[in-house]
Specification:
The protein has helices at about 35-40, 60-70, 85-100, 110-120, 130-135, 145-150, 150-155, 170, 185-190, 200-215, 225-240, 250-255, 260-270, 285-295, 320-325, 335-340, 345, 365, 405-415, and strands spanning about 20-25, 25-30, 50, 55, 75-80, 100-105, 135-140, 175-180, 195, 240-245, 275, 300-305, 310, 330-335, 355-360, 370-375, 385, 390-395. With about 425 residues, it is α/β, with parallel strands linked by helices. It has 19 helices and 18 strands. The longest helix has 14 residues, at about 60-70. The strands form 4 sheets. It has a 9-stranded mixed beta sheet. Bound molecules: iron/sulfur cluster. Iron/sulfur cluster (SF4) binds near residues 8 and 10.
Amino acid sequence: MSSEYYVCTGCALLCDDIEVETEDGKLSKVHAACLKGVARMKGCSNPLECTVDGEKADIDSAIAKAASILKNAKNPLIFGHGNSSSEAQKVSIGLAKKTGAYIDDTSSFCQGPIIEAILQEKLKTCTLDDVRHKADVIIFWGADPSNSHPRHLSRYSYFPRGKERQRGWEEDRTAITIDIRRSSTAEICRDTRFYQIPMSADAEFMDALVSGLSSKVPKTSFDFDKKRILELANVMKKAKFGVICVGLGLVYSLEELEPLFKLMEKLNEVSNFHLIPMVGQYNMRGFNQNLFAETGSVNRLKFNGETGNTDHGAEYSVVEALKNKSVDAALIIGSDPLSSLPLSVARYLTEIPLITIDPCQNLTATRSTVTIPCALGGVEAGGTAVRMDGVEIELKKIIETDNLSDEEILTRITEAI
Ligand code: SF4
């Protein structure tokens, strides 16, 4: 077994206590990771091949072709980034600037607005280590970490003992789940208080909680016991260190963040509450932070040539750019939009020159003009990444590969343009 610890890149929890065993230059065993993490770290069952126009190619020809596609495009799109190191993301941002490209990532249709509000200091946040050591009230809102981030409950939020939570989950922590269905997380937390709300009722439930926190009678248009809302408001009020773990269920339900801002403002008048986005891909937050540092926006951006001027907004999102057919080539890094976006939107990708950089074969790669295999982040390549709570984590290379890292591939494409 390895004498050092490695980081799992299976999700944005970036667990840093992973031990491995290697055999014949491959990972044979992965210790401490959850099943999702083991699957990620053991690599692809179907690795991507280097191809140009559907034929096997060498890396130099593939990079030259990719560079030529991006150079000849008037409005290229660069999309993906959530499974890339921060170093690769920064090169990609430079490439977008050089080619006047649209640049976006999956946060554009999930946690982007929450992360933007945190970076703009409109929402109070904390680290996962703060949660482990201090949190006494943990709310999983539209989040089901026992499936999405399997070690969240055991490492940080519910079960572990912390400096100020010596008795752990038995007596020192209250876990609350607010969701439209009884999730696995609601089942696991022994003393959980589960609040089942109707679909898309999150904003209204927040308003009702604000009323409860203001000692007013909460009202909802749906049938919900007022006493239970008041009881929840009371638990939140008494929290010494509360945290709301924001899941996709909540993000998708809110049309705007105003109800969440109001709730957090009220909570911090009467109590002490923080918020952490339950980011999925291991370095999605890194992309948001890196782009924000460069441009002041977290996603949905278009560079206007090398001037550094940018346009930002919904129309520059990957979804709108594809729907409106406003891009004429695309570079996809570590993502599979043909599988993950609605077909009516993603289909346009099959009509334009497409480049895929990824360690593994996927549907988008099968329709790409150029495919370039890259090293698997955190296993075959090192770098840094940003955990869901904004803490930077160093990734170490564990095993060798013949593939270049995505950072090296993007650097070579940039140099070739
Ligand atoms: Fe990896 Fe996430 Fe599982 Fe931790 S919880 S071992 S980071 S997949």
